[in-house]
Sequence to fold (1013 residues):
Amino acid sequence: MQFFTDHPELYNDWKFSLLSELPPWALFFVAAAGLAAIVWSLRGVRDLRTPRRFAGLAALRIAAIVLLVLAVCEPALTLQRITHIKNRLVVLLDESRSMELPAAAGQASRIAQVRDHFDRNASQWDALRNRFVVETWRFSSRPVKSSSGNPEVNPAGNTTDLLAGLAEAANDTSGRKLSGVIIYSDGADNEKLAAWEPSPNGELPGELKGVLDRLKAPVSSFGAGAGGVFTDLAISRVAADDFAFVRNTMEIEAEIEAHGAIRGQIPVELLEDGALLATREVLLGEGRRKETVKFSVAPQRAGKFVYTVRTPVVSGDAVPGNNVRNFSIKIIRDKVRVLHVAGATSLDTRFLRQHLTRNPNVDLISFYILRTTDDDFSIPEREISLIQFPTRELFTQQLKTFDLVIFHNFDYGPYQMKQYLANVARFVREDGGGFVMIGGPRSFANGQYAMTAVGDLLPVELPFSAADTDADFHPRPTQAGRNHPITNLNIPGGPDGWMKLPAMPGVNIVGALRPGGIALLEHPTLQAGGAPMPVVSVREAGKGRVLAIGMDALWRWAFNGDNAAAEARLYDAFWANAIRWLIRDPDLAPVVISLDKPEVDINEPAGVDILALDRSYHPAPGADIRLTITPPEGDPFVKELQTGPDGRARLSWEAKSPGAARIRAAASLKGEALGEAEDVLIVRPASREMQRVAPRPDVLEAIARASGGVYQPLPDGSLDRLPLLDPEIARVDRKEHHPLWNTWIFLALIAACLGVEWFLRRKWGYL
Amino acid sequence: MKRREFLGAAALSLGLAAAPGSARAFGNKNRLVLARLMYRGGDPGSRPSALRRLAAELIHRTSVDPAGDYLDAAPDSPRLFQSALAFATGSMDIQPFNDEEIRNLRRWLGGGGLLVVDGAADVFVGAMKREMARVLPDIPITELKREHVLYKTFYLISTQPGRTLRKPWMECMEADGRLAVLFSHNDMTGAWERDEFGVWRYDVSPGGQAQREMAFRMGVNVVMYTTCLHYKDDQVHLPFILRRRR
Fold:
């Protein structure tokens, strides 16, 4: 090497190479030509007398031709400096909270097992660091790279996500090849591998298989806590829907896990708001480590309820906190039961019926008067389909089964119903039912409702005598009507868009608004009590709500040649909104509680946001909020808040004990109550990490087996047994070419071959 | 007991829903209007008094409060939307609908309109079937089953009556679970026609006046269907109707 360079220390390798810039096919042609020349030249000397002479001349000719071909190829000596790159070795250290648990009863913690293993294998680790670039990652949820490389971890993570750790190992961008992954963990994954039960045939979950395929390296593991006896009874999983329907059966499924010496019948209880609903027993023991219990419950009331699944705490139970699981379920009414009574059939009746029957959330019972006493009664009963109007049954026995009653152009007089009007009023005021009166020739004052219990429910005063007008008009929204959920209809063109809707042909004359009445749509010219006459108005009456519509031609919103109104589905939107408001749909409540998270851990800040709306459904700035929090344990406490310009107030609170915290917000504006709302915050007795804490050596072993690694339980296990891929990548850092063909030696060799060959032929007389 | 209460009680005791007459002060524009489809070609005005007669019978027999006169509306007219029930009568071929007529009729039928095609001759019904197939190309024309609510919306009917009895069934096109088009071959409106002196304009055969009465009953049922759809299919009505059918 010194012969070619003055700095041999810069190179550690050499090789021959060809510097010719001719393309490969040209070089091939030259070589072929050289071969042909050799054959041709040998034919010329094959008749020599002695083999020695033939061999001498042939050798000289072949050497000359080969040297000439090489000269064309421009041979060179290449000096180079080659560096072999170290591969990566990734170490994943589990720092979840379960690593703090004893490896076995009376023993050191799982994380102590890990530290001890590192200490006892310090020399092997030094050897590995010489051989590889060792990357150490601490993982719980999102892996964090450790700068020191030592197992100085703080096991405080609230989850164990093995897949996230492995994915991080696969995501390297340094360009180094991965030689292997070493996991120190108890394997108690509670993320995507939580439900995985490794099978003998080695089948892997899809996502895990994808990560291992990307790694292309053996994943070995040391299992913490795997060797000892671990005792724990846990509710490892609860499956329930977020909401269910009143009187409909819902299923709640709980998975019970037992580890250690637990065996026998274990009672599992289900509670609703602290009251025992049902008890099931599961048989656990050898070969029955995990069992599922199912509860079927038919909730009887609407609202948000706290459900609890719990098991007893057994002797030696490592984590008593995972024997209880709280969760909340919103119980909603399955269908809105609507009683639709019409004094005559009309297109308004028909389109409202069409809307109600199409709505899957409505259970419609309707009674329409098809024939009045003025009509022909001469037809025999057997030839008509009319039936008796069951007033007594409807308005005494069945009334409370409805959520909403609609009187549609209906007069009570002919049906001896006056005695039942008080029942309707009680249904609204005391039972919280909804009531709608729709106008027409038989409705409002025309139906003689003034001074009746039903008339007193209405948002407007009624004149004593029949009163209506048949002049066309366009109802216009009031200020309240523009924001109220019933009439906030996003009509194309904004408030002016109302004027482009079909005109209403007539209206029932009503008086001024009653206290608490709110006009949503008003007549453009008629006055009542010194203000525009309400056409559509609402009112809270006791616990219930009332809607009054002084027209019977709203169907024109649903059926007209105006595309814009039809496309806006104005009619359907109006009635859908009205029904939701009348039945007090929580989503339309004037006070709304929003929780940042429905469930939090103990001492985790829980954000509570309260929105207050005024009676016109505007955000209410400056509203007083009285927030009453009833923690899982301890006395309720009250926080006084005030809403900001956006009508919102906010509180952050930390629960100190597990269970369900009830949060109740009552809003008032200038002394007038706006409404109330209630929600439930679940405070977990243990974080998700502590719900499943039993070591899972089967998971670690299955991963190792699938990737070509080995699994070894701690405290034993040797680093020497780990299969690791050796470095393969070599990088050329420096290179220098020295041509061999253009030296005097090379030329002299060619000349010598040709000259000696000529001399011998002359001497032997072949010239 | 007052007369009104007496009558109400009498109605209840008879098992009938009954009420006094309405105030009817909201004006004609708020009442149910029957429309006549004034298509191009043929004889769309061939039954000039039929719808007036039906309106009068509705007032006489039912709680429905129709306008006294009917509305003439061309297939492409926005006036069509003032009614949800239109009758197309005739006895001859008609001119094909143009694009605007098809568009308007399609919107009207899709929004909730019911078109009753009542033919005095098969050529008219055939022509209307041809055109309605263009208006609602995805909806087949099928025979109206005897169990359909149309046969019990007010009267319990078991035949398909008209001025004639050429076909004892009706055909229909259903959209969105309701009737959109009805095809009658028996000249139902012909049975309703009177002249200026109140005399029936056409003889009804073979059933005579009983058949004419049944034609009116079918007209009442069609209007009841328009104003309360499948009301009589509600569970509460079924036992009564089944008992009376027996």
User: Anything to note?
Assistant: Residues 25-245 of chain B form a domain with the Rossmann fold fold (CATH 3.40.50.12140). Helices of chain B lie at 3-13, 50-61, 99-111, 122-135, 188-192, 209-228, 238-245.
